[in-house]
Amino acid sequence: MNDDPIDLSALDPMDDEPRWRAFVDVTLRRVDAVLAERAGREDPLDLIASWRRPLLAVAAAAIAVLVPTEIALERREARVQRVERLVAVSSRVADGGRPTAADFLRALGDARAAEGKTP
Fold first, then answer.
1. What is the value of pTM for the model shown?
2. Residue 113: is its pLDDT beyond 50?
3. φ, ψ dihedrals at 94, nearest 5°
4. What's the longest Cα–Cα distance across the chain?
5. 1-41 pLDDT tens trace
6. Which residue has the higher pLDDT, 15 or 60?
7. How many CB atoms lie within 10 A of CB 94?
8. What pLDDT, on a 0 to 100 scale, did the predictor assign at position 106?
9. Minimal CA–CA distance to 55: which of 66, 63, 65?
10. How far apart are CA 114 and CA 102, in angstroms?
11. What interhelical angle do 52-94 and 101-108 show, nearest 10?
């Protein structure tokens, strides 16, 4: 192991004070320039607020596609349920049972007639 002291005087910035001051001044000017450039930019809230219109357009487009799709799926589901009810009535007939008019009306999906209400 070497116990000789190491000469670090070459690393002393104050050894050449005019050069060091010039270096600090240049660095401070560069920092000021970057900060001035950042000050002209939008802050994060302005950036997020600028997304409002595109997001509203995308949301409107999504609704324009999803609502008709949901309506079509609901109609399809209603038809499937009606077919299932008709199958249940026909299976009752196949087993020898006698369905009532209310059974047929319920199977066809006319809820008002099945409940005994007249228009």
1. 0.41
2. no
3. -65, -30
4. 114
5. 678 888 888 888 888 889 889 999 999 999 999 888 877 77
6. 60
7. 8
8. 76
9. 63
10. 5
11. 150
Query: Domain extents for the chain?
Result: 18-50, 57-119
Copy the structure tokens of residue 90: 């026909």
What would the two tokens of residue 31 be?
Answer: 């920092």
Taking the C-alpha atoms of residue 34 and residue 40, their distance in angstroms, rounded to an integer, is 10
C-alpha 66/C-alpha 60 separation (Å) is 10
What is the token pair recorded at 18? 């005019």
Q: Which candidate, 104, 107, 54, 56, places its Cα nearest to that of 80? A: 107
Contacts of 116 by beta carbon, 8 Å cutoff, 6+ apart: 102
Q: Give the position of tokens 């050894």.
A: 15
